[in-house]
Amino acid sequence: GANCEAGLNDRVIANRLAYRFTDPKRGQIIVFEAPVNACGVGGTFVKRLIGLPGDTVAERNGYIWINGKRLHDTYVDPKLRDHMTQTWHVPKGKYFFMGDDRVNSCDSRVWGSVKRSSLIGPVLFVYWPPTRWF
């Protein structure tokens, strides 16, 4: 399956029209404009959608719980799980993103949820580097 361990130089194709007609779905890898303060750089990010508006997202010893139910995130390599324990509430109209390399990902756990208007679209495929094709 597809993973979301994107490097800074990865190039992806996103479906910019998708969210005009459908809602973002948990588990999708999405291109979005991150908040200006994100990781000291801001700009366009590619991460996996974990929390939907109104969700309570909890991370306990590397595993994610959504509204009290464990998320079956088999796409995360066991070596890339971190040991953070924290809980976040996703505000109305916002989305919570995480990278699959949980140890090294600077994501919503650091800079918060992303508003719907900042979502560009789901990734259709990665075209560079070829090693990330799925």
Residue fraction in strands: 35-45%
Strand order, main sheet: write it out: 1-10-2-3-8-9
Question: Ends: how far apart?
Answer: 7 Å
Tell me, briefly, the overall form. globular
Order of helices and strands: EHEEEEEEEHEE
Query: What composes the largest sheet?
Result: 6 strands, antiparallel
How many beta-strand segments? Answer: 10
Structural class: mainly beta
Count, helices:
2
**Unreliable stretches:** none
Averaged pLDDT: 85
Helix content: under 10%
Oligomer: single chain
Kindly provide the radius of gyration, computed on alpha-carbon positions and rounded to a whole number of angstroms: 14 Å
Summarize the structure.
The protein has 134 residues and is mainly beta.
Architecture blueprint of SSEs:
Layout: E1 11-14, H1 18-21, E2 29-34, E3 43-51, E4 56-60, E5 63-66, E6 69-70, E7 85-89, E8 94-98, H2 108-111, E9 114-115, E10 119-128
Antiparallel strand pairs: 1-10, 2-3, 2-10, 3-8, 4-5, 4-7, 5-6, 8-9
